[in-house]
Amino acid sequence: IKLEKIVSISNSSHNKKNKIKISGNQNRFFISDISSNEFDIKFSNNEEDLSIKFSSNTFEIDRSNFNYKSINADPKRTYKKEIFENSFIKNQTAKYNSEVKSIEIILDKSSIELFINDGELVMTDVFFYNNEFQLMELSGLNDFKIEEQTLNSIW
Fold first, then answer.
1. Distance between CA atoms of residues 29 and 149, nearest Å
2. In the chain, which ranges are continuous DSSP H helix?
3. pLDDT of 65-99, one tens digit each?
4. Is the pLDDT of residue 11 over 90?
5. Taking the CA of residue 134 as centre, how many other CA atoms within 13 Å lie in the half-sphere pointing to its CB?
């Protein structure tokens, strides 16, 4: 993996929403020194968002706010597309009964991977968007540090 840039941000503001502009969807984010027991991390573009929530000892990846219906599909495959849209799991959850100290997020063009506390809990999910994410918004986190790395494609 070739590293293009590293951005470090420290925050000690309680319950403040922190917004980070991101370019492209080949990024690694490492959030450390977490001292919150409830928080949200959201990746968004003008139409859609993908969020990571931690509350009540549960991690959730929520991809319910995707605009699947605007994806251009072959009219002959409309029925299969409707089945997919209706059966595609919108939220994925995992229980985690330990204190969250760090999260590593690998975000690429169609998947997200979470590594909680150096891999004590790992979650992977796929998504299908119409436009790349432009913004990362963090809320509920206080006293944390974040490193952002833009990764080059392996293709």
1. 6
2. 78-87
3. 876 554 455 565 555 666 666 666 678 999 999 99
4. no
5. 6
How many Å apart are CA 42 and CA 2, to the nearest integer?
25
DSSP one-letter string for 79-122: HHHHHHHHHS--EEEEE--S----EEEEE-SSEEEEEETTTTEE
Question: What tokens appear for 49 in the block?
Answer: 């968002």
Instruction: Tell me the CA distances in angstroms from 51 to 3, 41, 146, one per residue in order.
Output: 25, 6, 17
Our measurement of the distance from residue 73's CA atom to the centroid of its chain's CA atoms, rounded to an integer in Å, reads: 26
C-alpha closest to that of 104 among 51, 47, 17, 27:
27
Q: Cβ(123)–Cβ(113) under 8 Å?
A: yes
Dig out the tokens for 149 from the structure: 């790395």
The Cα 46–Cα 58 span in angstroms is: 28
Element (H, E) at 64: none
